[in-house]
Structure of Isocitrate/isopropylmalate dehydrogenase:
Amino acid sequence: MTKIAVVEGDGIGHEVIPVARKILETLHPEFEYFPVEVGYGKWEQTGCPCADQQITELKTADAVLFGAVTTPPMKDYQSVVLRIRKALDLYANLRPVRGDGFDIMIVRENTEGLYSGIEEFSPDRATTLRVVTRAGSERIVRSAIRLVHQRKGHLTIGHKANVLKSDVLFRDICNSEAQKAGIECNDRFIDALALDLLQHPAAYDVVVTTNIFGDILSDVASFLVGGLGLAPSANIGDRYALFEPVHGSAPDIAGKNIANPIAAIRSAAMLLEYLGDSSGAARIESSINRALDQEGIRTRDLGGSAGTREFGDAVIREICGE
């Protein structure tokens, strides 16, 4: 039996993830869904936001549907997201950006870079070590190259090699692997790339970059599709996979039934794609579009008045009406 771990997390995660789960249950009632509790709320209860037990539970799942978690600005607080990515070795972060006339996949290295977790603090100085390794760079660009072959497209490498020596290594490894794979490839400085991607999105197909650059670039690119509330993501490793909306826990709107669940729903669609149900993923996407365009149902951030649950119900009506 296919097992799905469901992690609501914090804030609006408690609202958008149940909507996404309900849609998955509509399409696949035969799956086993089980909750795993991590995040700031878990830390408040137990003093640990993500213990070994929760990691073990996540490893029993065929895929993880993950909500947003709150990371307070405390130097002794362990980042839940970073711990899970490292424990499950989810080294490839995939963030699709699709719209009228463009279809971009941003492939972000997910386990090292400036999010290495190697940090030092003192009253007068804080240091974070940016780690770029040959092994990490090779496996992320090879993941990007596989996508290029599937999409029959081309690769863009985002970097800052004019300033950062670690990016010289990353750029050169990516170029070498692309050349060996025989694919069309170019590279751009990440700041210029961010601007040009917004101005000319149709010129891009698969973009590969380092951890923090990919984090920022994908958030910037979400402007093209209406904001973070619509942007999904996948975290993929060789054995495990986790799917989550790009947005944060948004505590200011939590509990008000006004959060946009589309990013979480699209993350559920990516989960189905990963499990081999491409038709189910397509049904979710087409149902979202019909709810928006034919029913005219929109949450407040999109200029409408529908609540989180109400939008999810509209998507389910569309799925069941097919």
